[in-house]
Fold:
Amino acid sequence: MTRNYHITFSREHGICCLFFWGCNLGCRICLLQKEAFDCHLPETRLKIYDPDYTGERPERFLALSELTRFLDPLPLKRTILMGAEPLCDPRLPDILGYLKEERHSAVTLLTNGKALPPFSLVDEVIFSLKALEPSLHRDYTGDDNREILENFRAIAVREDISLQTETVFIPGYVDEGEVLDIATFIASVDPTLPLRIDAYLPVSGLPWRAPESWQIEALAEKARAILPNTTFLHGRGGEEVLAYEVERIF
Ligand code: SF4
Structure:
């Protein structure tokens, strides 16, 4: 069995998203507490902005043969591994072998960086940095960040991997100063790296609120002085136009 529980696909772009369950961190604000399924689908898209919404948990996982049967007919150009932490799936090397060797798909990995990926089977890494300050990182994720920062440096020096970074702006928790410290750390490794600042989506039972649009815009402007390739994602309560539509395959 794999830890894959969900597949979505963009026919327009040939982009497939594979969602994996299980993680080696325990983030307080984990979006999977709200929604485990692709939040670009029509049935999930607006619900994630409801602070009290909690979606269904995955109940069924695919065997490797079932997964490849779903993927075989899809014209894959790029496959994005996401969900919780794809590197926690013990069958990931088999899945990557299928994607790279049989399907010749480009592979993008979204990761928290707690483990290193099999570099020869991944083309692009989107590295999610939670916090730089050690006690904040431990409070946020339940774990230390020293190994994560070392892994970040190890990926950044590789010429065969395209690296992007992201972090979540949580006013009152991962505040403006912390996000700017994260930008400074990234710039110290490579000032050309891209950073996307995501707006926090409130999780039921936690005290923090989503940032206003102007707050995240102002923060991104300050971050660009440190890391010129900084963007942000606010979502604006679901009013933002999607770049492309996706359909549910499983
Ligand atoms: S690393 Fe990501 S998936 Fe894992 S607990 Fe944190 S937010 Fe959730």
Remarks:
- The helical segments are 64-71, 92-102, 134-141, 146-156, 176-189, 213-226.
- The domain at 4-248 is CATH 3.20.20.70 (TIM Barrel).
- The pocket of iron/sulfur cluster is lined by residues 23, 25-27, 30, 32, 84-85, 112 (CB under 6 Å).
- The chain has one domain: 4-248.
